[in-house]
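Appendix C: a fully annotated inverse folding record. The material below is reproduced so that readers can follow the format used throughout the book. The structure is listed first as tokens, followed by the designed sequence.
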């Protein structure tokens, strides 16, 4: 499964989340640590959804870049 993730600078570290899996998030000192944590958190989150009888949302988010001109 391929999931879009968002990783942002947060204070002295980074935080990340999965737009298609509300509540699935991670934090760390580096982008690489957050990415690795999300790679572990996503299957864990999906397993929890299934165990609770909830539907697992299909990945629908996609990354797109938009070119803009400075004002």
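Designed amino acids, in order:
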């Amino acid at each position: 499964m391929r999931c879009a993730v968002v990783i942002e600078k947060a204070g002295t570290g980074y935080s990340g989340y999965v737009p298609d899996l509300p509540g699935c998030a991670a934090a760390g000192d580096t982008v690489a640590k957050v990415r690795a944590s999300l790679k572990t958190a996503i299957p864990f989150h999906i397993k929890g959804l299934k165990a609770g009888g909830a539907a697992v949302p299909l990945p629908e988010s996609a990354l797109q870049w938009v070119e803009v001109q400075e004002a």
